[in-house]
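Forgive a beginner's question, but might I ask you for the amino acids of a protein and the tokens describing how it folds?
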Amino acid sequence: MASNPVSSRTLTLTFLTLLLGSALSIAQAGPKYDTSTEAKFKGTIEELKLPPKDKDIAHITIKSGTDTFDLYLCPKSFIDDMGVSFAKGDEVAFTGSKIKQGDADMILAKEVVKGTDTLVLRDDKGNPVWNWKH
């Protein structure tokens, strides 16, 4: 029985498209929280980076002694919904997972404490607690 070259080519292209789509989905999923690298930190907010889109992740630059940390929080809309605000110069304590993303070191925040306010961002397993509908 002779094979149909068009069907074979279509099947190969479909497979490659699915494979590429899966690889892009994994790459866009972003960094994963690692509970084995979890630690507590304290510092002063040097810079607040709020994204223009509510679903994009807000992050802050923290200065602690001679160290500087890039702390990734959550979608801006979740911060707004929780009624918490951050500003340059605020003293914060936080728990997070220190990870490497490419050449950069970053911390994925699990919990941030400012004064008497505590913003919980992840559960005990490191899964985000915010709703992506924000």
